[in-house]
Amino acid sequence: MKEHTLSTFVTSSMSASPKQLATLRDQLKAEIGSPSTNLQKCNQLLAQSKIVMAELGAFTPTPGKPDASVLLVARDILETGVYYSVRVKDIASFERYIAQLNTYYHDLASVLPPSPQMYPLIGLNLLRLLSQNRLSEFHTSLEAIDPEQLQSSTFIKQAVDLEQFLMEGSYNKVWSTRSTVKGDEFMFFYDILINTIRNEIAGCSEKAYEFLPLQDAGTLLFLKNTEEILNFANQRGWKVNPVEQKIYFGTEDSNAVEIPQEQIITQTLAYARELEPMLFLFAVIMAALLLFSMVFFVIMFSDLECDYVNPIDLCNKLNQFVLPEMGAHAFLFFMFLVNGSWTAMILNLPLVAYNIRKVTNNRHMYDATEIFRTLSTHKKECFFKLAFYLICFFYFLYRMIVALIAADA
User: Fold this and answer.
1) Angstrom distance (rounded) from CA 63 to CA 60
2) Do 77 and 49 form a contact (C-beta atoms < 8 A)?
3) What are phi and psi of 368, to 5 degrees?
4) Could you tell me whether strands 246-248 and 211-213 are parallel, antiparallel, or unpaired per DSSP bridges?
5) Positive or negative CA dihedral for 359, 361, 362, 366?
6) Where do transmembrane segments lie in this chain (predicted)?
7) Separation of alpha carbons 83 and 262, rounded Å
8) Angle 5-10-14 (CA atoms, 0-180°, nearest 5)?
C-alpha cells in the first residue's frame, strides 16, 4: 500500500498540469459530498493535490503566476481541505488550511472572483477561535472582514453575537443559539465552545458551593438529563448522593497555594527589627534638627525683648520655619505609625494634635502687630517644645542603641 501511494505521488509530480489538478479537485468534491464519504480516500486525494499544487506554484501564488484558473482550482481544493479537517476533527490541519486560504481571500482578491465559501469558512474560523478562547486573534480576524459583512453575513454575525454573549457572561444566550447553528462543521466547534463554558461554570461552582441539587446542577451546566449529569460529575470527580439527589463537590483546588502564615509573620517581625535601628537613627537626627530649631526660636524672641530686632523682621524670619517644623514632626509621627512603634507614636501624639489644632484655627503664624502682647505665650510654647524635643532626642537615642544590640544578638 505504501509503495503504491509513493508511486502515485511520484507519477503525479512528474506530470503535474492544471488539467490534472482540476480532475483531482472534482474527485475530491465528489467524495466529500457523497452520503457515505470515504475519509481515507479524501486524505489520499488531498495529498496528491498538494503535490500538484506545489509543482504549479499554487502554495506561493502571486498576481499573474500561476494562471487565475489554476488559482481557482487550488482555492477550491483548500476549501475542501477545511471541511475534511473538521470531519476528521483535526483542528491543527484546519488552522493550516485557513492560513493558506487567507492568501487567496485577501492578497489575491483583485485577481480572483469572490468565493461563495469565503465567509462561511471565515465564520467557521471565528467560531474556532472563540472555542479556544483566543479572543485577541478573534478581533484581529474581524478587522480584516468587510464591515458590511459583519451584519449581512449570517455566518459572521453568528460568531460576533456569540462573542458578545460571552463578554456579557450570558451563557444561557450562547446555549439558546444551538438551534440556529447550521452545518455539522459549525456544530463541531460550537460543541467545543459549550464544553469550554461548561467547565468554566463547573470550576466556579466548585469554589462557590459545597453542594448543589442534581436538577439545579443540570440547569446550570446545560445538561439535558440525569445520565449526562452523572457522567460529567464523574469526569470532574464529584460525589453524587442518589438518596439526597445532590452533588457534593468537595474537590481540592490543585492550584491553591498554602500560605505559610507563621513564616511570613516571623519574616515580617525580623524585617521590622532590622529596620528599627535605621528608623530611630532617623528619629535622632530629626529630633536634633527640631531641637536646634526651637533654640533658634528662643534666641529670636530674646533678641526681640532686648530690642535687637524689630517685630516685622522677626515674624518674617520665624514664619518661614513654622510649617516646616510642624511638617517634620508630623512626618516623624507617621513613620512611627507605619513601622508599628506604638510607644514612640503615642509619645508624639499630643504635640501632633496640638499643631493640627493651631493650623485649623489659623493661629500658627506670628503676627507683627500682636507679637509683644503674645510674646510670653510664644516663649513658653518654645521652651515646652525645646524640653519635649530634648526628651525625645535621648529616648530615640536609647531606642536606637537597644535595637542595634538586639539586631547583633
Assistant:
1) 10
2) yes
3) -65, -25
4) antiparallel
5) negative
6) 279-301, 331-356, 386-407
7) 59
8) 150
Q: Are 24 and 48 in contact (CB under 8 A)?
A: yes
Q: What is the dihedral of CA 295, 300, 304, 308, to 10 degrees?
A: 120
**Is the CA virtual torsion 119, 122, 127, 128 positive or negative?**
positive
Which has the closest alpha carbon to 130: 221, 222, 193, 187? 193
Partners of 239 in the beta sheet? 248
Output the pLDDT for position 297: 92
Angle formed by the axes of helices 261-305 and 311-339, nearest 10°: 170
Query: Tens of pLDDT along 116-157?
Result: 889 889 888 988 888 888 888 988 888 888 888 888 888 888
Return the C-alpha cell found at 250. Answer: 468537595
Q: Is 19 exposed, middle or buried (0-12, 13-18, 19+ CB in 10 A)?
A: exposed
pLDDT of residue 255: 57
C-alpha cell recorded at residue 397: 537615642
Rounded Cα distance between 131 and 162, Å, is: 10
Place of cell 474556532: 128
Peptide bond into 260 cis (omega under 30): no
pTM (whole model) above 0.70? no
Cell numbers that stand for 369 in this block:
502687630
User: Locate cell 439527589: which residue?
Assistant: 245
Burial of 28 (0-12, 13-18, 19+ CB in 10 A): buried
